[in-house]
Amino acid sequence: MQNIILAFLTSLLVVIFGIPSIITVAKLKGLYDKPDFRKLHTNKIPRLGGLAIIAGFSIAVSLWGISQGMDTRLQYLQAAVIILFFSGLKDDIVVLSPYKKLAAQIIATVITVAGEGILINNFYGLFGIESIPIWASYALTVFTIIVVTNSFNLIDGVDGLAGGIGFITSITFGLWFNFIDQIGWSILAFGLAGSLLGFLIFNFNPAKIFMGDAGSLCIGFLLSIFAIKFIQFNAPEAVNLYKIKSAPGIAVAILIVPLFDTLRVFVLRVLKKQSPFTADKNHIHHSLIKIGLGHKEVSMIMYLANVVFVLIAFLIQDSTTTVILLIVGSLALILAQIPIYMFNHKLQDLEVENGQLIPEEFVNPSKSKEHVN
Question: Rounded CA gap, 225 and 148, in Å?
Answer without folding.
Answer: 9
